[in-house]
Each structure stands twice: as structure tokens, then as C-alpha cells.
Design a protein that fits this description.
The protein has 2 domains: 69 residues; 251 residues, Aspartate Aminotransferase, domain 2 (3-Layer(aba) Sandwich). The chain contains 15 helices and 11 strands. Strand 10 and strand 11 form a beta hairpin. It is globular and about 65 Å long. The mean pLDDT is 96.
Length: 456
């Protein structure tokens, strides 16, 4: 054994203690750590011929790389839709690495059974029935891709075709309809061979990002054959929700696969005041929910639900002499593109076991309260125009000079926001999804924003 590797094995408890103490210090200071780090140019170093050992590698990381890392796990990182890692989820993540399970088969581990239990907990959390089967994937993009891949197979089945065997060209023309699709939908259609240009956007309701269901029905009526409809439960800019129940009722008249992108809006189901926004979610054929957003587990973790596991198996099954066959309750390598992966479910299992539905409901409701407080205060700042009601956890607002304000807020170290364009208007988004975030954090971001506007 290499001498450095042998020394690290012998000193492993001390190494883990050193890493623990360093990580604890980082987390302890997270509330005051600069939220956005100053970008610097790093010249890549050559691969070491002889390593320096884990202790020295930790020191090099602390000195060279850590200062440039963002405070994205903290309470005032409001860019994209980014959660953090609850204490229990972090414990689960560390143990995921320690056990290092390839969580795709029951042949040698109970890891798959743990994932099955966690899927059941999540199904209950989001108000889904037993007809929905779930599988962990890397993120919302992959969850959308898997759901649309199953939908593609369903399209073929309507014509007596197996796309998994005959290829997407056997389908002919494919119709995909959506009101305000997330960019990952286009990416998924590209990867699946359906094509970005096959997505037809349907008119939205006035001053909304929700689809006009009457316009959707007209579009479906004009299609000769089955289609895919991508509905949204929480749009990017304004967290708007399509009327899932009304869309589902159209299935009695028109043949279509209903995929719902509920990447973070699905968490509205946890709140009594907001669960009406996802009424009808259980009627979807496939659903995307991103767990490293509002469940606050570390990257990467999402879940994909579907009612048609049989079609999912058609697409993703894998045959080899050393693998179990895709029968009964299949092993997980038969259900997603990955043949091997880490036990992503363990972080979700830990945080759900530790805090339950009530604990995560409190996080959602506290974040919504902080977003509303921020929305009320930002509307009073000079030169700011709020572009949509604060329906859940995102505030979308316009300022005169978006790049300058973004840069000034980031330089302050107080917050990080991301830009967007809403109905042709350049804007900013503040997304509240971190388990630490409260109204006091909203106040600090408002102060930083007010200063950036005054100095600009």
C-alpha cells in the first residue's frame, strides 16, 4: 500500500475529526460568511506525482479553494431556488459517503429498501396515492427527462410502437404542449431525440404564467393523435401554478401524457394555506420534484414519480448475466439512466426521520412569510417595481440597472440574487428556500438592496 495511503488509514479517526471541526466552524459562521464570493482567476496546477496526504490536502483546500466558495448553504443566498442541508441531512450525507453503497440492487444491501421506504414517505408528504412509484435521480433536469422518456414510450404504445426498441423515428410527428416550461424541458426533449422545436407554447392567462386551459384544450383538439402536456406547479419567475385538476379533466376527451414539473412548487402541498395550488397533482402520469431545493438535502437529490412503471421498465431496463431481471419489484438500475449511483435517499430519510412532515412544513411556511415580508418592503424602495404577486416563495421585481444592482448586492456579501426576464422586462428574483432563513434575513437583504440602489 502506498505509504501516504497507509498513514491516512492509520490516522483516519484524527482526519475525520479535523474535517468535522473545520466543517463545524464553516457552518457556525455561515450566517456571517460572504454570501457570494469574489471571483478570482485560478491557474490549474499539475497533477501531483507524489501526494501530500489527506491532512495536508485539507490545508491546501482551506487556503486555496475554500475562500472562493459561496455561502450558498446559508440563509441569504436567494439565487436560483437553493436550499441548504438540515443538520440531519448533513449527517445522512456523511454516512452516505462512509457506507458508500451502490444503491441500485438488493443483491447485497438493504439500501434499496431504505430508498423504497423514503419514496413512500415522500409520496405521503406530497399527497400522492399508492399508484405513483418513485425513484431517486440527480436533479430536476434528470427527473423531467425520465418523466418525458416514459411519456415518449406511452406515445409509442398508443400506436403499437415501442420507442425503446424501434427508436424515436418510428413515432413520426410528436406534439408537446406547455404554457411556461422550464428550460430543462427543452434540454430533456433534445436529449430524448424529440427535439426542442417540437414544444409548442400555449397562451397563458392574462398577467399570469399559468396556462389558459381553454387555449390548451383548443390546441389538443387540433392535434391528430396523442400528445404530451407539460404542466407547471411553480414557475420560475413568479411561482405560478397551472390548474392541474382542470387539465386532468381534459384527459377524458383527448389522449395525452400529463407530466407535471413541480420541482419546488410541489412543496406547496405541505402548507394548509397553499396546498390548493397543487390540487390535482395526484392525477399526473409523471411528476418532477427536486429535493435539494425545498427539502434542504445536499446536492444532488431529486425524485421522479410515475403511474406507469411498466413503461419506465421498457425504457430503462438493463440486461446482463450479473444483474437481476426486471420483474416484480425491480431493482433500481432498471428505472433510470444510471446503472450505479450513491444512496441519495439517505439524506432525505434522515431529514424526514428527524423532523417529520411538521418540521418541513414549518420551513416552508417560514420561507413563505419571509418572501412576503421581502415583497412588501422591496415594493417601497425607490425605482423598484414588483412584477407579480408573491404567491409562494419567490419575489420577482424590476430595477433600472439589473447588472449593476446584482453586482453591488453580491459585493456587499449580504446576499446573492439572480437575474431573469419576465414578460420582456429584465428583472431580479429573490427565492426563499433555505431552512435557516427567516424574516430577519429578509430585512438584511432589503438593507443591502436599498444601499445598492442608493449608491447606483
Amino acid at each position: 500500500m502506498d505509504s501516504r495511503l497507509a498513514a491516512d488509514l492509520a490516522g483516519l479517526p484524527d482526519l475525520l475529526t479535523a474535517a468535522r471541526d473545520y466543517a463545524a466552524g464553516i457552518l457556525d459562521d455561515l450566517g456571517e460568511r460572504p454570501v457570494a464570493a469574489t471571483r478570482a482567476e485560478f491557474a490549474p496546477q499539475p497533477l501531483p506525482v507524489a501526494g501530500v496526504g489527506a491532512a495536508r490536502a485539507l490545508q491546501v483546500f482551506r487556503e486555496r479553494w475554500a475562500p472562493g466558495f459561496s455561502g450558498s448553504a446559508g440563509p441569504r443566498y436567494l439565487g436560483f431556488v437553493t436550499g441548504g442541508a438540515t443538520p440531519a441531512a448533513l449527517v445522512g450525507d456523511w454516512l452516505t459517503g462512509a457506507f458508500d453503497q451502490n444503491a441500485v440492487t438488493r443483491q447485497d444491501s438493504s439500501a434499496v429498501d431504505l430508498e423504497r421506504e423514503t419514496v413512500g414517505w415522500l409520496r405521503s408528504l406530497f399527497g400522492l396515492g399508492a399508484g405513483h412509484h418513485g425513484t431517486f435521480v440527480s436533479g430536476a433536469t434528470m427527473s423531467n427527462t425520465v418523466g418525458l422518456a416514459i411519456g415518449r414510450e406511452w406515445l409509442g404504445a398508443q400506436q403499437g410502437i415501442s420507442v425503446a426498441r424501434q427508436g424515436v423515428a418510428a413515432l413520426g410527428d410528436i406534439s408537446v404542449l406547455s404554457g411556461a416550461p422550464h428550460s430543462s424541458i427543452y434540454k430533456a426533449l433534445s436529449m430524448l431525440g424529440i427535439g426542442r422545436d417540437q414544444l409548442r407554447t400555449v397562451p397563458l392567462l392574462d398577467d399570469r404564467e399559468a396556462v389558459d386551459v381553454a387555449a390548451l384544450e383548443a390546441a389538443l383538439a387540433a392535434i391528430d393523435g396523442p400528445a404530451i402536456v407539460v404542466a407547471n406547479a411553480g414557475t420560475v419567475n413568479t411561482v405560478d401554478f397551472d390548474d392541474l385538476s382542470a387539465i386532468s379533466r381534459l384527459k377524458s376527451k383527448y389522449p395525452f401524457w400529463l407530466h407535471v414539473d413541480a420541482a419546488f412548487g410541489g412543496f406547496a402541498a405541505l402548507s394548509e394555506d397553499h396546498k390548493h395550488l397543487v390540487a390535482g397533482l395526484d392525477q399526473a402520469d409523471s411528476i418532477c420534484i427536486d429535493l435539494h431545493k425545498w427539502l434542504n438535502v445536499p446536492y444532488d437529490a431529486a425524485i421522479q414519480f410515475t403511474r406507469r412503471r411498466d413503461l419506465q421498465l421498457n425504457v430503462f431496463q438493463n440486461a446482463a448475466a450479473y444483474l437481476t431481471p426486471p420483474e416484480g419489484d425491480p431493482d433500481l438500475f432498471h428505472l433510470t439512466p444510471e446503472n450505479s449511483r450513491r444512496l441519495r435517499a439517505l439524506t432525505a430519510w434522515f431529514t424526514l426521520a428527524a423532523y417529520g412532515a411538521e418540521g418541513h412544513r414549518e420551513v416552508v411556511e417560514r420561507n413563505v412569510a419571509a418572501a412576503r415580508r421581502f415583497g412588501e418592503q422591496v415594493a417601497g424602495l425607490p425605482g423598484v417595481r414588483v412584477l407579480a404577486p408573491v404567491r409562494l416563495n419567490v419575489v420577482c421585481f424590476a430595477v433600472d440597472d439589473v447588472p449593476a444592482v446584482l453586482a453591488a448586492v453580491a459585493r456587499s456579501g449580504e446576499a446573492f440574487l439572480t437575474p431573469t426576464v419576465h414578460r420582456g422586462v429584465p428583472a431580479l428574483r429573490a427565492a426563499f428556500a433555505n431552512w435557516r432563513t427567516g424574516e430577519a434575513d429578509a430585512d438584511r437583504v432589503i438593507a443591502a438592496l436599498a444601499k445598492a440602489l442608493a449608491d447606483g
